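In this section we turn from sequence analysis to structure. A common task in structural bioinformatics is to predict how a protein folds when a small molecule is present, because the ligand can shape the pocket around it. The inputs are simple: the amino acid sequence and a SMILES string for the ligand, here zinc ion. Study the lines below before reading on.
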Amino acid sequence: MIIDLHAHTASRSNCSRTTLEELVETARARGLDALCITEHDVRWPADELADASRLLDFPLIPGVELTTDVGHVLAFGELRKPLWMGYTLAELVEECEESDSALVLPHPLRRFAGERAIKGGRVPPTAAEIVALPQWVVVHAIEAVSTQTTALEHALTAAALAEHPRPSVGASDAHGPGRAGTYATEVDGPIKTAEDLARALRAGHVKPVLP
Ligand SMILES: [Zn+2]
Ligand SMILES: [Zn+2]
């Protein structure tokens, strides 16, 4: 199955300029099999997302993009702590050990080699420095490409993945119209729920799909 693991709607992420209907329309036009909705620090109520999925006749999988001490982390599956209390990476990893939820590291180098970091004079990290980051090792997969990352970030991530192989995914991180499914992930199916997706991520049965 081809799934976009990372997208934001304007109704629940104030950085987004697009709607759920538009994301689904674009994902469907690109031939995707499912779309994950991953707002910042808030989840869609499960029944509301299920209703939307029925109404739009397209598989929607719930996830969330959490703000942690190491930056953003995507989570799929059960989370026990109320999201408004916030998570550190260590807390997330500890919970996921027990809950079988899965973690994906989005835009892994934004802080180190993103546009703002480079403009600020930051020297891009080496592959050895990247793979030594705690978040590189403890998540279940690395987001290797998205529409919110630069060619430099993609190249550095690829170099780090070559040095220290980890499961990797592609995702649009769509914040605007026409973006859903630009990058996506091939996942061993069938994937119907966040739990199915978490299982595939934990098993490493994923790979990025490029445009
Ligand atoms: Zn993010
Ligand atoms: Zn995002």
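Residues 6, 8, 65, 106, 173 surround zinc ion (ligand 2) (CB under 6 Å). As an exercise, try to locate the residues that line the zinc ion site and compare them with your own expectations.
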